């Protein structure tokens, strides 16, 4: 479950920037210090004294906690997933790349400026340039939903969105759903119901499900809606409705029954039993 | 992806001018089809003109029916209160396509212009007359299970994939286009998409430099009796093997007018003209529905791997008409 930020711009051109970035590595946040102290109290002093910085800390944590990080420490993921070094990226010289586009938008409630190649998708921009690696690249062709993010309130596929089209827009990714260490109810429901196995599709599933709650509230219809002409707001979604409306998110591990249960629980706020009936 | 210049159009005439001044420029709607094709090097425009900020997003009633802005999203169109109550066939067809995420991105204009999903078209190592005129058609003797049974030519056997367009065909819509000289023209839906003939590289009658501004649907009496049936390899998020949009304008127990179009069977939405003609004035009954379906499908010319589509077509038309009758 541990998300490590490894920002390695794939474009060789950017490598000269790395030297600059490394010097400006941000220090550990108080929350990160506390978490580290809880897990490895003896090492904390040493880590702080030796002036280890965040990137090293994250690497250390990944080694130290492999297999150790119980799900009650899930909030740790949020800490690690905060974007690093966003300021460094702004330093790029605009004319330095062919067809560069200067982009200002809002990512997880933070005003963000970044120079992108016109060809760059929103997904690659989030992952490679802004350090938000929660959104996943499953297929890069709109066929799996792993890259789902919420743009101006609506779920979309970041792999088929050009970053340049996001000027002035507001993007929410999986990293932006929790409030501090408090999980979004949909995240909590996915945890409770084991709405995942390998977890690869999960950020997309959760972003998709969060936006689905808004769609249901607004009364949007789906292909399985019984009477499309009758219109009402605040629809309570049946299993069939959830499956149809979540069909844009493929789960190779087949955690579907758990995902449906989690979404039901998040929507109703009531404890939901899993439905193990496989309809074929 | 090839390098391209990214431009944003502020208004319609600017979009057209930008397009006219660069022969290899393309308009960018939701990008859900164009970007995919660019990643596969099937499309390689040197300039993308983002038109999503144009004010062509309204859906409004007019004297003749309803007008759908070309830049309105598929989701907003399917969920518009008037579309849901008066043109539910369109809502259903849109919602049968793609996924919630893609429908949130896809524009009405872009949907009409989406290209075939023929896998040989997508694979640049394969011959394909649509992608590269004169190179041959890999599907003709290859895997053509998903391909056409009507209207194909010796050059191309691809099918056109849009669900939305099948409903628009049944609803006898038209497409409004802004031309290079600033004037507009209306293209009847039947004439908008074209059969492959000797020029499969062309999907429709739009010219470079033209901008779709809206889709116009005439008023109809089908709302209470329409249905969209889509048969596919999985329950959701899959393209149609066969789909049918059906609407019945009833006069008592008799059919005043039947509207039937099919998807997944041809290079364009296939108006089932023979079935429509057969049903006019007849009693609305399963026997008549099946007879009409058979009359339509008798002219089908299946390929080596898609003979099943003929029987599937008969059943799907019958089924859609029964559902439409029930309401
Ligand atoms: C995985 C997947 C599954 C899908 N499943 C289905 C399905 O089951 N059924 C279905 O119907 N569709 C399906 N789709 C296709 C989807 O509906 C289309 O990609 C979408 O409707 C295209 O709209 P867009 O706005 O994104 O078009 P774009 O990709 O932006 O544009 C498509 C084309 O239209 C041109 N264009 C756009 N707007 C205009 C305009 N106003 N005037 C002139 N030219 C214009 C562009 O230049 C481009 O050539 C699927 C897509 C994916 C990726
Ligand atoms: S069917 Fe058409 S699109 Fe497919 S390979 Fe043949 S020419 Fe190309
Ligand atoms: S990575 Fe975007 S849909 Fe698969
Ligand atoms: S949890 Fe593994 S793909 Fe969904």
Automatic annotation (TrEMBL), chain A:
InterPro entries per the UniProt record, alphabetical: 2Fe-2S-bd, 2Fe-2S-bd_dom_sf, 2Fe-2S_ferredoxin-like_sf, 2Fe-2S_ferredoxin-type, 2Fe2S_fd_BS, Aldehyde_Oxdr_Iron-Sulfur, Beta-grasp_dom_sf
Lineage top rank: taxon: Bacteria
UniProt keyword annotations, A-Z: 2Fe-2S, Iron, Iron-sulfur, Metal-binding, Oxidoreductase
Location of the 2Fe-2S ferredoxin-type domain: 101-177
Entry GO MF terms: 2 iron, 2 sulfur cluster binding; metal ion binding; oxidoreductase activity, acting on the aldehyde or oxo group of donors
Gene Ontology CC entries for this record: periplasmic space
Protein name: Xanthine dehydrogenase YagT iron-sulfur-binding subunit
Organism listed in the record: Pedobacter duraquae
Species lineage: Bacteria, Pseudomonadati, Bacteroidota, Sphingobacteriia, Sphingobacteriales
UniProtKB/TrEMBL annotation, chain B:
Family matches, as PROSITE patterns: FAD_PCMH (PS51387)
Ribonucleoprotein found in the keyword field: no
SMART domains in UniProt: CO_deh_flav_C
Name of the protein in question: Xanthine dehydrogenase YagS FAD-binding subunit
GO molecular function per UniProt: FAD binding; oxidoreductase activity
Entries under InterPro entries matching the protein: CO_DH_flav_C (IPR005107), CO_DH_flav_C_dom_sf (IPR036683), Diverse_Substr_Oxidored (IPR051312), FAD-bd_PCMH (IPR016166), FAD-bd_PCMH-like_sf (IPR036318), FAD-bd_PCMH_sub1 (IPR016167), FAD-bd_PCMH_sub2 (IPR016169), Mopterin_DH_FAD-bd (IPR002346)
Alphabetized UniProt keyword annotations: FAD, Flavoprotein
Xref: Pfam families: CO_deh_flav_C, FAD_binding_5
Domain FAD-binding PCMH-type: 1-222
Highest taxon of the lineage: Bacteria
Organism lineage: Bacteria, Pseudomonadati, Bacteroidota, Sphingobacteriia, Sphingobacteriales
